[in-house]
């Protein structure tokens, strides 16, 4: 049996998407409308065939939920279904190994084609706008920022990542500069705003 999870806070869109999958004879479809609900579903051990995520749902900050899905090793089963047409998000999500990024403004023909492709395990990424984003952190910087958010100090982060405290301080300085933050606390706040930090 194929298990499908739809993460969507707009009830009409959620039901419409569910109906499309039912037309594909998918029976076991679950819907949740907040990031907190999604995390519970994602971490309960269910063998999901496909996970469909909207980005802008309550409790999610930027790509925070998307990054959590990647951290759980579920990117290759997941696709984004969103109204957010942001090229830097699309590019990052594609680099994470997700199956697709489908915008809700797509034509009916494209939308149905994308859903069928992704359900079959083939990648599909809608063309989106060319908006740029001037904050680009490396995976290591994102990891350190998350640990700062979790309350760890330089020495604790260094021990956890098996790096020297000096290296950690350099990384923190770099990410603080990249975020144009005044200090570590400000960097964490901006990390939440931009979706680099996941809040459980």
- Radius of gyration (CA) equals 18 Å
Please give the largest β-sheet: 6 strands, parallel
The helix count comes to 9
Poorly predicted segments: none
H and E string? EHEHEHEHEHEHHHH
Overall morphology:
elongated
Number of strands: 6
Roughly how much helix do the residues carry, as a percent range?
Answer: 40-55%
Spatial order of strands in the largest sheet:
2-1-3-4-5-6
Mean pLDDT: 87
Percent of sequence in beta strands: 5-15%
Distance between the termini: 30 Å
Category by helix and strand content: alpha/beta
Question: What descriptors fit this protein?
Answer:
200 residues; alpha/beta; six-stranded parallel beta sheet; 9 helices; elongated
Explain the overall architecture.
- By secondary structure, the chain is an alpha/beta fold.
- Helix content is 47%, strand content 14%.
- It has nine helices and six strands.
- It starts with a strand and ends in a 6-residue tail after the last helix.
- The mean pLDDT is 87.
């Amino acid at each position: 049996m194929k298990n499908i999870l739809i993460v969507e806070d707009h009830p009409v869109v959620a039901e419409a998407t569910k109906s499309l999958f039912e037309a594909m004879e998918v029976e076991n479809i679950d819907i949740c409308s907040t990031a907190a609900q999604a995390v519970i579903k994602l971490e309960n051990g269910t063998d999901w065939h496909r996970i469909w995520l909207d980005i802008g749902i309550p409790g999610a900050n930027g790509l925070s939920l998307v990054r959590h899905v990647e951290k759980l090793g579920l990117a290759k089963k997941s696709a984004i279904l969103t109204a957010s047409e942001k090229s830097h998000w699309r590019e990052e999500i594609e680099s994470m190994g997700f199956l697709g990024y489908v915008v809700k403004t797509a034509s009916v023909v494209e939308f149905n084609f994308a859903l069928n492709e992704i359900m079959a395990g083939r990648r599909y990424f809608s063309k989106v706008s060319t908006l740029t984003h001037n904050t680009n952190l490396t995976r290591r910087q994102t990891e350190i920022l998350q640990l700062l958010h979790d309350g760890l100090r330089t020495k604790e982060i260094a021990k956890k990542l098996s790096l020297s405290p000096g290296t950690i301080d350099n990384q923190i300085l770099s990410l603080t500069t990249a975020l144009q933050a005044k200090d570590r606390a400000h960097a964490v706040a901006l990390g939440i705003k931009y979706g680099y930090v996941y809040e459980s």
